[in-house]
């Protein structure tokens, strides 16, 4: 009588134990599934990272156009003696060169003139020529483009001069690739100075001419129109000096954006080579031998842009 009951209890126990084991198996199975899916996701992410990885270092950077001019003339020598005599007739020296940390890229020179007539008044003139050159750079752009940006900055700076009155800016044709004249009046110690700032660009070089005049001790003020013509004359001459210093063969007043052509003239060693070939042909016929020599060229460089101040007597 007791055995069937005992067997029934044992069977019930086995069923309960089996039922309790099922969640454990399911949980274990779920963990295993999550682990596998995470591994697959990691593999997929790794593959995606590889696909979007940046290009390898050392790849070539796109080349920029080579700058037309590689040097600047000496700032204190860009104007002729006649021009200096016309603009600053009483200048006592050859000009004061500005300081520069890199004379190959920038330079300036200034002159001042005081025609003192005592109680009858005096005429004061101040002139400065500033030169800047820009090299082509893969990260910054071509020399010409950088010069264009600087040209715009020089014009804007002139227009924004503190205390300037009656500011006028006008483009000018016939000087370099770009040219603008900025003119205004500036009052100093009860005297009115007629300021002319002429900015021009020649390829990758920017020339800025600052020229002002004033009638001191009661003398009449100079004519602004005449001062403007003189400033333009100086700028044109300085631009031509930049072209000449680089032997580009171009004209500062061309107004075109074409690069100076350097292939129009034969290189210095082309002629000797042609002569050698001709002489070799002659040697084959006459059994003679000859040789030639080559010529070399020399370079120059220059100085800065900072503004210089001049004091006048009244």
Q: Your description of this structure?
A:
The chain has 314 residues and is of the alpha+beta class. It is built from five helices and seven strands; from the N terminus they run H-H-E-E-E-H-E-E-E-E-H-H. It has helices spanning 2-51, 81-87, 143-159, 224-245, 270-286, and strands at residues 96-97, 106-116, 122-133, 165-171, 178-188, 191-202, 205-216. Strands 1-2-3-7-6-5-4 form a seven-stranded antiparallel β-sheet. The termini are far apart.
Set down the secondary structure blueprint.
Elements: H1 2-51, H2 81-87, E1 96-97, E2 106-116, E3 122-133, H3 143-159, E4 165-171, E5 178-188, E6 191-202, E7 205-216, H4 224-245, H5 270-286
Antiparallel strand pairs: 1-2, 2-3, 3-7, 4-5, 5-6, 6-7
Features of the shown structure:
single chain; 314 residues; seven-stranded antiparallel beta sheet; elongated; disordered C terminus
Overall pLDDT score = 74
Low-confidence stretches: 15-53, 249-276, 278-314
Percent helix among the residues? 25-40%
Alpha-beta classification: alpha+beta
Short description, anyone?
With 314 residues, this protein is an alpha+beta fold.
């Amino acid at each position: 009588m007791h055995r069937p009951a005992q067997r029934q209890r044992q069977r019930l126990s086995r069923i309960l134990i089996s039922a309790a084991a099922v969640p454990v198996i399911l949980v274990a199975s779920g963990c295993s599934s999550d682990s596998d899916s995470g591994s697959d996701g990691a593999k997929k992410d790794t593959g995606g990272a590889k696909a979007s990885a940046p290009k390898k270092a050392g790849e070539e950077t796109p080349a920029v156009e080579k700058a037309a001019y590689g040097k600047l003339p000496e700032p204190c020598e860009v104007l002729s003696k006649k021009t200096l005599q016309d603009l600053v007739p009483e200048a006592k020296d050859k000009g004061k060169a500005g300081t520069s940390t890199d004379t190959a890229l920038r330079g300036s020179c200034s002159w001042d003139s005081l025609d003192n007539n005592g109680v009858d008044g005096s005429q004061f003139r101040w002139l400065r020529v500033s030169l800047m050159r820009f090299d082509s750079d893969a990260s910054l752009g071509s020399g010409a483009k950088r010069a264009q940006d600087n040209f715009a900055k020089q014009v804007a700076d002139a227009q924004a001069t503190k205390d300037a009155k009656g500011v006028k800016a006008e483009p000018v044709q016939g000087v370099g690739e770009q040219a603008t004249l900025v003119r205004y009046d500036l009052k100093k110690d009860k005297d009115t100075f007629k300021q002319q700032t002429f900015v021009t660009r020649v390829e990758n070089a920017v020339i800025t001419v600052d020229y002002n005049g004033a009638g001191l001790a009661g003398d009449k003020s100079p004519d602004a129109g005449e001062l403007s013509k003189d400033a333009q004359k100086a700028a044109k001459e300085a631009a031509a000096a930049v072209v000449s210093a680089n032997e580009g063969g171009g004209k500062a007043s061309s107004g075109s954006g074409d690069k100076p052509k350097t292939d129009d003239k034969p290189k210095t060693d082309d002629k000797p080579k042609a002569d050698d070939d001709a002489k070799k042909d002659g040697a084959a016929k006459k059994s003679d031998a000859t040789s030639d020599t080559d010529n070399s060229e020399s370079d120059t460089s220059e100085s800065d842009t900072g503004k210089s101040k001049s004091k006048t007597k009244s």
